[in-house]
Backbone:
């Protein structure tokens, strides 16, 4: 018998967490085990006092000015900008803070997977490796850089 799994979900916006809670409720009937999810409003992993084996994130990863022209009009019009865009000059610093939080929340040999902008994943990989991670950029089905997989080695 498999043991129940515990999950921890955060978002900066309460509406996003409400949707996540609703989706979890709908999917919970399909699970044979009573898995648990804690939902909390937080900016990234600020003040999270837990250790995890695996963290998944879809952070804002589009530079508000430099990358805006490449964003599909429907996405720009209907998706919350808070979930999509970071100010160009704050981009690297935002991820530096985030990666420090991820590092402190991961167990040794833990993994972190995030979606990212194809033009910035290699530089984010380099940034993360300077902070103690081992990183790998993973391509999507269209052979574009799409994900960053980090491992905490020590």
Residues:
């Amino acid at each position: 018998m498999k043991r129940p799994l515990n999950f921890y979900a955060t978002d900066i916006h309460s509406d996003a967490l409400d949707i996540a809670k609703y989706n979890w409720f709908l999917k919970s009937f399909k699970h044979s085990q009573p898995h648990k999810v804690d939902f909390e409003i937080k900016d990234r992993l600020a003040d999270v006092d837990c250790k995890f084996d695996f963290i998944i994130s879809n952070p804002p990863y589009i530079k508000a000015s430099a990358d805006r022209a490449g964003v599909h009009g429907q996405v720009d019009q209907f998706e919350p900008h808070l979930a999509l865009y970071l100010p160009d000059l704050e981009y690297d610093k935002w991820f530096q803070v985030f990666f420090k939080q991820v590092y402190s929340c991961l167990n040794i040999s833990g993994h972190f997977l995030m979606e990212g902008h194809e033009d910035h994943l290699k530089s984010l990989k380099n940034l993360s490796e300077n902070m103690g991670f081992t990183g790998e950029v993973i391509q999507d089905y269209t052979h574009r850089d799409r994900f960053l997989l980090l491992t905490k080695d020590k």
About this structure: The chain has a mean pLDDT of 91. The chain is about 30% helix and 30% strand. Residues 47 and 89 are 25 Å apart (CA to CA).
